[in-house]
Structures are given as C-alpha cells and as structure tokens.
Specification:
280 residues, ABC transporter involved in vitamin B12 uptake, BtuC
Length: 280
C-alpha cells in the first residue's frame, strides 16, 4: 500500500522511485567528493560504459543484467587503478582505454543479446518509475554498504586522495585504499544506473559536489553540502518529471546542474575550486 504522501508522490510507483532516487542522492555525491578531490571526475563515465558492457554480458549469459554490470564494473575499476598505480598509463589515458573498450563491448554484447530493447534502455538512460521492490532492496543494500564504507574509511581515503606520497610516508596502505575507492565507485555506478542511467551517473557524482565546493570551507563541509544538493536534486527532479512528463533521470541531473548555476550566481559567478581542504 502506498504511504499517505501528497501529489506527486501519492502513488506506490512514485514512492519506490522517490526512495531509490534519494538513496542515489546520498551515496553518489558522497563518493563523488573523493573522486573530485582526486581529480578524476570522469571516472564515473568510464566505469559507466563498462557497466553497460556488463549489462550486455548479462543479457547474453541469461542472468540479471545488474550482476553482469557489477562484475565488469568492479573488474574495470580495478584495472584502471592497476594501470594508474604502475604508471603504465596516466589516469586520463587509463580511463579512455576502458571508456572506449567498454562502450564498444557494450554495443556488441547488447546486439548479441537482442538489441536495444526497453530492458536495456532503462539501464542506459535510467527509469526510476519502474523500479521494483526487489530492485529497490538491491539499490538500498548497495547504497548502505557504500555509505558505511565511506564513514569508516573517510579519514584514510581523505589522506590518500589529497596527497598519496604523504599517506605512504605515514604508513597508510595506499594501494589497498585506492583499490577500495575504485571498487566503491564501481558499485556506486551500478547502484545508480537504474535511477539516472549509466550515461548520467557521473553527473550525480560531480554536480552536487561542484555546488558544495562553492559553499563549504572544509572537506567535511563539502560532503555535507554535496549530499544535501544530491538529495534535493533527487526529490525536486522526480517531482518535476511527474508534473512535466519528462524523463526522470535527465530531469534529476538538470536540477542538480540548476543548483550549481544558482549557487554560482549567488557567489557572484566564482568557479569551484578543483580540490577541497580541511579536516574530515
């Protein structure tokens, strides 16, 4: 039975979409704060394309596409980190290698699995309005795991993304922490793709953080503001998509972009810093 919520969330499917979108609005900007600090804002795009290849692999193998996306996204994230850590390729080049290989593999595998049907488009562009109870449990479980890991490891991860050399001198397991962050990014992409789609998931990691950086004076403050903007974009974007009959995932991201435009205008157009300082 639906909860007694007002329009536009009075229907059960809208309430499932709301819960899923709010969960994404929490964990995507949370981990995006570390991604932006590490100056790898496009990593979500690269891993998203690998997740798309995983969706195609799942269709070919006859398994739930989410499991295929999760396996390939995690493997790809670790591969990107392996190349970067061993300086076999720069961060941008490693992303590009996996970016193009992932999208090419996705096109081939989706074709083998039956083409771009509606069951593929919901992962490519997102469609929270059709999220089922089972999918909501998966999104919630993955989101809770991401948030828990971030809370436990935030100080160590902050040290690593801010200054790897200092973290290594301080005795932190830099390699393991970088690999953990890569896996968490991959899980975030997969958990969010049902809501905003693999093509826009990186935007939910970056845009709220861009707004948060304009207002916060510390890394912890940026995290709090970013989550606030992420949740706000999820709720308002979903409401507007119902009232205007627009695509929910795209509307949520446009609201997040609108927040940045408003905050930047209030701050007299100052662009956000590339990194954040302060204590976690």
């Amino acid at each position: 039975m639906p909860w007694p919520l007002p329009y536009p969330f009075e229907l059960a499917f809208m309430q499932r979409a709301l819960v899923a979108a709010v969960i994404v609005g929490v964990f995507a900007p949370l981990i995006g704060t570390f991604v932006v600090q590490k100056r790898m804002a496009l990593i979500g795009d690269g891993i998203g394309h690998l997740a798309f290849a995983g969706v195609g692999a799942g269709l070919v193998a006859g398994v739930w596409p989410v499991w295929g996306a999760l396996a390939l996204a995690v493997a790809g994230a670790l591969g990107i980190e392996w190349l970067r850590a061993r300086r076999a390729a720069s961060g941008d080049l490693a992303l590009a290698l996996f970016f193009y290989a992932g999208i090419a593999a996705g096109v081939v595998l989706v074709g083998l699995g039956g083409g771009l049907g509606s069951n593929v488009l919901v992962y490519l562009f997102g469609q929270p309005l059709t999220v089922t109870g089972g999918e909501l449990l998966v999104i919630g479980g993955l989101g809770a795991g991401i948030v828990a890991a971030m809370l436990v490891l935030r100080r160590a991860l902050f040290a690593v993304v801010t200054d790897e050399e200092w973290a290594r001198v301080a005795g932190l397991p830099v390699g393991a922490l970088n690999a953990t962050l890569a896996v968490l990014i991959a899980v975030s992409v997969v958990a969010a793709m049902r809501v905003v789609g693999v093509l826009l998931v990186a935007a939910m990691m970056v845009l709220p953080v861009a707004s948060g950086q304009l207002l916060a004076r510390s890394f912890a403050g940026t995290m709090r503001w970013s989550v606030g903007f992420g949740v706000g974009a999820a709720v308002l974007g979903l409401a507007l998509s119902r009232m205007l009959d627009t695509a929910p995932g795209g509307t949520i991201v446009l609201v997040a972009a609108g927040y940045f435009a408003v905050v930047a205008a209030v701050r007299r157009g100052r662009l956000p810093r590339l990194g954040t300082g302060g204590e976690t």
